[in-house]
């Protein structure tokens, strides 16, 4: 029976070993996140970015109040226009469970919707994921360590993968936009895209990016394709990481897909009144929001009934991209951004 005892001891030691390896991997991921933060911090300090050069966020929050004075004119926050932060998260699977800090995924797609509740229209401000701005940092236990200038996409990762992650993103985006109040948020895992895409019968786009055929032979530049299944996720997420600022260029694909998907929903809703409700039911386990169901359904219904989304309904945070030895970075031009925020969320006082 000694061989049996030895076998049990071996299995026990292997089990302990695997547990130890798992623990080390868990800790190392957090350490890697911390080291990434320090490396970026050092690079920024070495380059000597200043507020004048656009490398630091403004200390004063121009849009923290209802009244704004700009270029000799006064503006008031339009109470009928709501700010809704929408995030596409690169976290595979359902989002029903909270995660440890560092494991909740990053926010790959960041869009601030300006919903006009009177005209029932929407406009979309697209925010580059690599925008450098102040975000909340935490340790592996979720304890807040403070704030540091980092890639905006990481703000989601430092949370719990659910509400806390969304709150950190809202805080970071609000700070980036001069303290603008953001009323609502909605985050969804990007792996749900194929499911939503097929529910509307597919989405038709024109391939404008080189190299996408390497992921799917049908996605050849210049071809018009009705995306099915995983093709939709490939189209929305594809970028050539060997090219600087590929995430920035990818926003054109995302804008094209949003417009085409919106159009497909409108066409489908014309003969299927339950389509919008069914879409949200399907994605329920893949999203996190602070809105009640009837609230986000009404927003969606109003948007679908408002007419076609055009290029004029999309805005992009203005700024400059910088390629570093480690990462791509994007620095918002606060001076050029101010008129955009005023146009979307404020009205001039006569």
UniProtKB/TrEMBL annotation:
Pfam families named in the record: LytR_cpsA_psr (PF03816)
Source species, domain of life: Bacteria
Domain (Cell envelope-related transcriptional attenuator) ranges: 107-266
Membership in a protein family: Belongs to the LytR/CpsA/Psr (LCP) family.
Protein name: LCP family protein
